[in-house]
Amino acid sequence: MVKGAARAVAKKLPIAKIGELLFIIGFIVALVVGAYVGAKPVSAGAAGAIVLALAVLGVIVGLITVTEEEAGPYMLAAVALMVAATFGGNYLAMNNVIGGFGSAVSSLLVHVGVFVAPAAVLISIKAVYKLAHTK
User: Fold this and answer.
1) Residue 106 to residues 84, 88, 127, Cα–Cα distance (Å)
2) How far is 93 from 111, CA to CA, in rounded Å?
3) Structural domain boundaries, residue 13
4) Residue 102 burial (CB count, 10 A)
5) In the chain, how many domains are there?
């Protein structure tokens, strides 16, 4: 029953709309999981599964959502997120003011970065290939 409903929805939605929905879902999952993991650490196995799921979702989103016109703005946003996530250690100082808040912010940014980074890598590879191939 569920498979039939999923097929019916997939037939009605264009691939770009599916990619948009996956992006929204992935972004929300990265935010929620990042905040949760920052507040309450999880086991290494669970953390690995979360990172793998976000990365796979990021690859799918990168393949079907980001157009050539959107590549530049997407890359700029992705780099900004990854730079912010890199400085996560600085957010930990906030734990002294509000217990666990710095850890949650740091984890949130890292998980959003894990979701966005695979698409950024794919877009970068496509851009380099296009630049090298057009000559």
Assistant:
1) 9, 5, 30
2) 19
3) 2-133
4) 20
5) 1
Counting Cα atoms < 13 Å in the Cβ hemisphere of 111 gives: 26
pLDDT tens across 71-109, in order? 888 888 888 888 877 775 666 666 666 776 777 777 788
**Contact of 18 with 10, CB cutoff 8 Å:** yes
DSSP state of 67: -
Q: Tokens 């029953």 belong to which residue?
A: 1
Query: Mind listing the pLDDT tens digit for each residue in 10-37?
Result: 455 677 688 788 888 888 988 888 877 7
CA-closest candidate to residue 74, choices 121, 132, 130: 121
And the tokens for 49?
């599964």
Whole-angstrom Cα distance, residue 31 to residue 41?
Answer: 15
Alpha-helical segments (H) within the chain: 2-12, 15-39, 44-64, 71-86, 88-91, 101-133
Residues 6+ apart with CB under 8 A from 95: 101, 102, 103
How far is the C-alpha of 75 from the C-alpha of 118, rounded, in Å? Answer: 11
